Amino acid sequence: MSQTKMLEVVAPAYLEKFSCLGAACPDDCCHGWAVGVDHDTYVRLKGLPDRELKPVIMHALQRGAGKSGSGDYGFLAKQDDERGNCELLSTEGLCRLHQKCGEQMLPDVCSTFPRLTKSLGGQLEQFASPACPEIARLLLSDDDALLLQLSQQPVRQQMIGKGRPEMEWTASRQVRDFFLTVLATAELPAWQSLAVLLLLAEVLQPLFHDDGADEQQVAAVLADWERQLLDGSLLQELGALRRHDLLHVKVLAAASRVRADLDFRNPRYLQLIEEALQGLVNGGGEEGDAGIARQFAAADDIDSIDSVLRRVLFNHAASALFPWTRRLLGEVQIMCIEYLTLRFWLAGLMQARGRSLREDEIIELIYLFYRVNIHMPTYLEQCGQAFQQAGMNKVEHWLLLLPLRAA
């Protein structure tokens, strides 16, 4: 068990305002997953003298696959019910171990969630997952939420993600900075930022290999694309693109079927998806994919959804995706899947409710979507496979799905 320390990190402004809401939170962190426990924490929990918690811990604490000293030496099992609660969760929605023994007794993942810390080039960066309702609220409610600054934040050494060796390459850091800059550019619709990154990733991918990158070529490509963005030539081409709605519906339907093969245990998320689907199926006067496509295209506030999703995508890219430059195109496609899925369901909820969504309604769908992705870590990858099986094998195919305007 590592100790929590206050360390200097590069962090977005929203983390300065974040604190756990505890019992006031509309949800809790303590369901849907089996929490990994390192060797030292396992031993301490086994030896906990508290008479009230001892039998609960003895029942919940299981031996894992890891050896002595490993991070997966044990785990706290979840209950085998619809929600899969941790057995240490109280009826007030709080952790009984935290209440009685303090934060330092918690397993690393329980102590640090929703924070995500990694080391890049000797500098610590910390973001947080919008799977936490309060992080999602802070992320979406403040125009300056993603302003990066030096900040003192709680960190556990064992939970610092180590940058991949390729981040020592100058070219990798340049690509990461360029991609995040494009995602942060508010003058671009989010869909156009994604389109730029898809096209650019396709060009850059061959320049990276196992033992390095052609740094001169990478620098030249980035300089050329920066020029095209600044002079407007690339954006003019992208601005002429229109969405192919029948393909859009077909591909998203294929991805939606992934849920049928997974053990989803979040009834509220499924309720929202069902409501959104009904909003897209009903009222268009036309059945099947064509009717859904027409209802989606009729959503009035699609531009505001695009603006909201830019922040969500930047946060996810900075915290969890780049800089895997040897899989650059795949990471951009994952972001596209997030964007397309959230945009589709938010538009469906607007149609179902007959109005623009309130901020709290947007926050609810977004935090539940990312919660599902934590509980089902292969979900997005499987959605990506479904996209490929539906024919999304080339970048130009993806460009038929992203635009805000239909053909």
UniProtKB/TrEMBL annotation:
Question: EC number(s) per UniProt?
Answer: 2.1.1.-
GO BP annotations listed: methylation
User: Any idea which UniProt keywords this protein has?
Assistant: Cell projection, Cilium, Flagellum, Methyltransferase, Transferase
Could you tell me the gene encoding this protein? Answer: fliB
Q: Which GO terms describe its molecular function?
A: methyltransferase activity
The name of this protein is: Flagellin lysine-N-methylase
Enzyme group, top EC level?
transferase
What species is given as this protein's source?
Answer: Vogesella facilis
- Asked if the keyword Transferase belongs to this entry, the reply reads yes
